Amino acid sequence: MRRLILTAVSSPDQPHPYIHGPSAPYTWSARFSFEEQPRSLEDIITQLGGIATEFNSPDWPISGAVLGTGDAEDRAEVVLGLDPSQRFGTPSIRDCELIADIITETQGWRRKPEVPAEMRIIMGRRIGYDGAVYSMQEVSNLLAGVEADGLELTEANLFSLRYNSRLEKYQEPAVIVAGAEALLDPVLKVAAMMGQDRLVPEITNVATIVYHQKKDKP
Question: Running DSSP on this structure, what letter comes out for residue 11?
Answer without folding.
Answer: B
